[in-house]
Design goal:
Blueprint: H1 2-40, H2 44-74, H3 83-96, H4 106-127, H5 134-161, H6 167-174, H7 181-190, H8 203-208, H9 211-232
Length: 233
Amino acid sequence: MQAVERVTRISRAAARAAAIAPTLAVLALLAVAGARIARAVEDGADVALLVVSGWLGLAAADLLGGLVHWACDRFGDERTPWIGPFVIAPFREHHLDPQVLARKDFFDGASSNAWLVLSLLVPFVAWVDPPRGPCEIFAAGSIVSLCAAVLLTNTFHQWAHQQSPPRAARWLRALHVAISPERHALHHATGDRAYCVTTGWCNEALDRWRVFERIERAAARLRVDARRRHARG
């Protein structure tokens, strides 16, 4: 019994380390990248570029997150190779029990996205020179903002489910940076819209133009055409 308990404790410690380590690594790399950009800023025009690039990165993270959310909701299942247990399953679990996210802490929520962010941020910090000039500052700012927003996507999503979120959540919602519970509730009401859960900025346009619905219809037509060609062949 003691051996089993010891193994259980070790497993829990390893799982906790696997959640904390990538998140801390991302935060450290974001600090390094941010410091490089700050040293490159020379005047107010550069600051304005940074502000615009920051909003662009947030919007891109919101859109990409919505695409992933939609794909995980509509295609495959928990048994899908590679991504099923680690990517699709959390989305499906969240629909069965919306409060499962609210019960997680920051590291548990951010760790899965942290590994994704590291795949972009590590080569960016290691191999890309510090920015020089307005264009490079804008590009670097967009990348860093995108990485930070992707890391925080699950945190913003968590806050939308929590009864008493931290003060930072209320502040960021007032700035329309973090998605609000009311806007996210639209997704849980029907399950087929409002897939973006970072800021929620992209939801209105995607839903109004029925972007995901059109993609699904196009994919269905392609599958039918493929079956017909296979049957004739």
